Queue: 2 jobs
Job 1
Amino acid sequence: MGDVDARDRDVEGRARSARPRDGLGRPLPYGAQGVPRQPEGVVRTPQETVAEAQTLLDAGKPFHAHEVFEDAWKSGPGRERTLWRGLAQLAVGLTHAARGNATGGARLLRRGADAVEEWAADSGERRPYGIDLGSVAGWARELAGRVERGAGPVDAEAEAPRLTA
């Protein structure tokens, strides 16, 4: 099993993601001081999810906010999966934009905006759990446009959206 450990995999061969990461989720060399990772598989209330994700976004850690949204997407009720998946895509889009990946950032920001708008239209809810979906989608589309026009890597902390009013 020496090869399993050397490849950062568990005994079943799944990635362990034990490598340290920076605030934007980029892998750092082993032994480097990284940013603490979000624990995976945490079941939170929707309000806890929004509050935790906003704290991470405000700290310039959209990659970590995406993991919080992903937990809600995977553990929440089926009717809310599109909402949480869309919010996770927005956070990953901001992550890519902050890393300097204009194409991927803009694509994910728009995909996330489409998803939250689709969910709002289907559900009839524009402000689930206090999230202003119209404003969040507008923020994502505006940032996607700036990134495509060559804004370069954006400051994730300065560009963080306000999820609630």
Note: Confidence is low (pLDDT under 50) at residues 1-5.
Job 2
Amino acid sequence: MKRRPSLTGIAGLIVVVLIVVLAALAPLLAPHGEAELVGEVWAPPSADAWLGTDNLGRDLLSRLLYGGRITLVIALAATLLAMVIGCVLGFTAAIRGGWIDTILARAVDAVMAIPTLIFALVLLSVLGTSNPILIGTIACLASTRVFRLSRAIAGNIVALEYFEAARLRGERLPWLMAREVLPNALPPLTAEFGLRLCANFLFIAALSFLGLGIQPPLADWGGMVRDNAGAISYGGLAPLVPAAAIGVFAIATNLVVDWSLAHQAGLRD
């Protein structure tokens, strides 16, 4: 029986694609520059600033578009790096087994025992808050979750006959990972990629809100919430605009992931 497409999944996909396109075209769509002063502090929406202005008089709409671009780029880069690190180490642990598996698993357990936000704050305070360091820190922390999933999936695959046949042929570790394990582990890893992307996006926003994420003058949604938090006392909506954008992207991404998981379950059935 053919499974009907999920309306919520399609809606989530449309929203995600729309946000990505708007962020990618920010230099073309933004009415003003990222740091250009266009009016008074926390001015209401007008013809010059459709969403109003921020704490310095910059256009909120322009900064929202530019902020979405840099946040998405860093979240995507960190997620891709986390998937590579986690999958390589997880597959290696499952295929090799023995003391290699034990050392890698215990090292991951030790890292996961420390609260992620506290660990990130300590690392960024010591190493700095440049974008490459931010990507590397988030990727290393997120790779622990990917490691656990990929190790569990690969552990089931290495027990199958076709994998044993490849091992007996004398195939090397990179070949086993790329040709035997990865193709059969793609469905759950694809869903994990979506979950990690959403989690990393929210994590970057949280770090920026605390002042250790993307640094000024670059715009990002978490930093925009922090910078404009004072507007709440005066009845302004400036911090609610980036906060709503964060929530919409997170919800839409989760809808797409749920759709993907349901579709994969339907194919297996």
Note: The two ends are 10 Å apart (CA to CA).
